[in-house]
Specification:
Structural class: alpha+beta
Shape: globular
Largest sheet: 3 strands, antiparallel
Helix content: 25-40%
CATH class: Alpha Beta
Strand content: 15-25%
Number of domains: 1
Number of strands: 3
Distance between the termini: 12 Å
């Protein structure tokens, strides 16, 4: 399955704190990560799925995310509700986020954000 991952103007990944949850699609998946530097590797912190407007707004209110710096986010709309959990399962396996719940359904292979 080919996902269209959101990028901002100029092809840049949006900063986590600058995203208005109301601009996100109704349902789909999102990925939150911290950019690395030359000394640190980028780290995927969270993969969210389902009603992403509400899920992302919840993340923005969570102190764990608010206290972190240099966070970025991207999201992809998924119209077929039956595949959202399978896409999330694949992204959890592929990206290995630090936080979140493991989705225990057969994974559906998709393009990760960095392959978009």
């Amino acid at each position: 399955m080919q996902l269209t991952w959101f990028k901002g103007a100029g092809g840049e990944w949006p900063a986590f704190e600058a995203v208005d949850p109301n601009q996100l699609d109704q349902h789909g998946v999102f990925v939150v990560w911290r950019n690395g530097s030359t000394a640190k590797v980028s780290t995927v912190l969270y993969v969210g799925h389902g009603p992403i407007r509400q899920e992302f707004a919840r993340c923005q209110r969570d102190p764990v995310f608010r206290e972190s710096r240099d966070l970025y986010v991207t999201w992809a709309k998924i119209d077929n509700f039956e595949t959202i959990d399978s896409v999330a399962a694949y992204l959890y396996q592929k990206l290995r986020p630090l936080w979140g719940e493991i989705v225990l359904v057969p994974p559906l292979t998709v393009n990760p954000p960095w392959a978009a």
